[in-house]
Amino acid sequence: MTALISFVVLLAACEEAEPPVEDAGFICARPGDDGTVTIDANSDDCSADHDGAAFSCEAAVDGDTITVHTSQTPGDDPNDGCGGPQRATCAVDVADGAYTLVFAGDEAELTVPVAEELCLPDQGETAE
């Protein structure tokens, strides 16, 4: 009986352990006048109301390249409705100049400082 209970607990744990989705959704970079580039990340799905959902953003600068990664754990959908996307923000400090913004295999040129935001993949959308 103890073995059966252990098996059921182990099986339930295996079913709940869903690996994160890397580089999910889209990002929009907003260069500021203070040398900070703020990244608004959007999961671009309906997972904001999912139980156990998580979404994060990380950005790093290496020379003239700003690389952004997102990580999403979709969680369990409690209903058939759409709770909207998950959102996260991250930022990097950079000197004025030209940078290559890299996300999910896409890249684009970003000049700091500028007032325009740049989104990848380029969907013509913003993370507002």
What does this protein look like?
Strand 7 and strand 8 (106-112) form a beta hairpin. The longest helix has 15 residues, at 2-16. The chain has one domain (20-120). The protein is mainly β. It has one helix and nine strands, in the order αβββββββββ. Residues 4-14 and 124-128 have low confidence and may be disordered. Strands 1, 4, 5, 7 and 8 form a five-stranded mixed β-sheet that branches. Strands 6-3-2-9 form a four-stranded antiparallel β-sheet, with no helix packed on it. The termini are far apart. It is 12% helix and 45% strand.
SSE blueprint:
Blueprint: H1 2-16, E1 21-22, E2 26-31, E3 36-42, E4 54-62, E5 65-73, E6 87-93, E7 97-103, E8 106-112, E9 118-120
Parallel strand pairs: 5-7
Antiparallel strand pairs: 1-5, 2-3, 2-9, 3-6, 4-5, 7-8
Features:
128 residues, mainly beta, five-stranded mixed sheet, four-stranded antiparallel sheet, elongated
**Helical residue percent band:** 10-25%
Q: Which regions contain 5 or more consecutive residues with pLDDT less than 50? A: 4-14, 124-128
Biggest sheet, open or closed, and with what strands and sense? 5 strands, mixed
SS-based class: mainly beta
Order of helices and strands: HEEEEEEEEE
* Average of per-residue pLDDT values: 85
| Outline | elongated
Radius of gyration: 19 Å
End-to-end separation: 54 Å
Which percent band covers the strand fraction? 35-45%
Number of domains: 1
Number of helices: 1
Give the strand tally: 9
